[in-house]
Request: fold
Amino acid sequence: MLSLLALLIFTATLHHTVARTFDWKTSKANGVNLGGWLVQESTIDNTWWTASCGNATDEWTCCASLGPRCGTVLAQRYEAWITPSDIDELASANITPLRIPTTLTDVYSGDQASYLQNIASYAINAYDMHIIIDIHTLPGGVNGQPFGERQGAYGWFSNATALGYSYRAVSAAIEFTKMSGFASQFTLEPLYEPIDNRDTSKSDTTLALSDTGAAWVTEYIKGVLALVQAAGADIPVMISDGFKGEAYFSPLFPSTANIVFDVHIDYFAGRSADSGTAQNLICEDAKDSVGDGKFPVFMGE
Reply:
């Protein structure tokens, strides 16, 4: 049975005196991703990865090889990689939202939620930051990449069992925000970069996610929206678009849906980008990413 990393049994005890509603339609988001903290990737901190995981390709394989030591190794990472002083530094740069990737796995069960609580509490109380809870990995694998559960895994798609576990994680995350006492300070991103095309040359293009895969993502997101509504939680749901763009999904949701699209543009993926062209490309991509204008768009990467 999958462990939900303590989210299912954790009750948030955050305290906040002033809450500012973050409106994705009007707010300008100058944010950062707290990668390599609650989700490990070999490319983020090579020194730590080599010392802790050796030649493992992903966190799943690393944890499986560490066995009983995995909990201790990851807890030390959670304790040290992101601290309140990091939040102070980000605040000094006028950072508004923090996207915090979390993971869903059956090879490790630990205390991620308490670390998430501590940093979220500090960021909100001290600086009124907005927190995006990103469920970065889902059962079976969402994109075949090491950060999608494990390398080569695409088993989340068209998998009713995996979908059920995903909804349990979503419900736990919703409860986390509700118990915080200031749900308006959170956005929920229930999956990350869904890709079902095994042809990696199509990654980071509109062909990365098939129409069939996009239909499965749409079904999942509609289920997430239903869970949010049933829980009485007024939190936005962020949709990772699988590189298809806001306009592709826009007709599938009513204009009243409380959603925001997370668009990623990778300049290393077949783009003729260098120091001389990058600025113009960024401006062009920002304009193109708006889509049809029905829903707000956040350029998360």
